[in-house]
Amino acid sequence: MDMMDNKSKFLKLKEGEREARREILIEATLDLFGKKPFDEIGVRDIAAAVGVSPASMYRYFPSREDLFVEAFIKDLREIEKWLANLLDSSEELSLEEFSESLIRYLIDSEPTFQMMSYLMIKGTMTPDLLRKYNGVQRAMLNKFEQVLKRNGIECTDRITAHAFYASLNGILMTFRNYPGRTREEIEKHINRLSALLCKMLRASSEA
């Protein structure tokens, strides 16, 4: 084996180690999102969770914000996989069943809600992160388009899938933490609103 082969293997190993450390930091961030508000989470908190110095984190992420967005992208990928399994489990999944299942999943997911709120406030990301984010959003929208088509709602362009996706997210953002209501009351109200949304989508398709 010549020196170039050894060097190539060494560089691949270093890159693999780097990605593994990035993944650990992302997982720690997701865990912290489930425990405290994003605006209370600093670099020191994340570094302490994995046992490294705060300065060493910047070897893997240019900023705290970049790390937060990477964590959100990873979380969205998990949701997309979950949606794929949901659609594979039933060929006759109604819009209401799809919506109720997704609502239940997201109501129980504090990290997702925290990151959705954060991204709405921040609204910017680097070109590389935007490329990743757009990719996972397209995969999510494919699942919404799939369930719409199964229910006889044609999507000649993606606007209907966009409306369905954005409306469900908006309902969740508005009512998920509504003051003075129990979790059961909130879920019941959100499901009523999502059922109305599904009815409106069908009516629009039939018009």
UniProtKB/TrEMBL annotation:
PROSITE patterns for this protein: HTH_TETR_2
This protein's UniProt keywords: DNA-binding
Ranges annotated as DNA-binding: 42-61
Family annotation (InterPro entries): Homeodomain-like_sf (IPR009057), HTH-type_Tx_Regulator (IPR050624), HTH_TetR (IPR001647)
Signal peptide span: none
Pfam families to which the protein is assigned, alphabetical: TetR_N
Superkingdom, taxonomy of origin: Bacteria
Residue ranges of domain HTH tetR-type in the record: 19-79
Name of protein: HTH tetR-type domain-containing protein
Organism: Desulfoluna limicola
The organism's taxonomic lineage, starting at the top: Bacteria, Pseudomonadati, Thermodesulfobacteriota, Desulfobacteria, Desulfobacterales
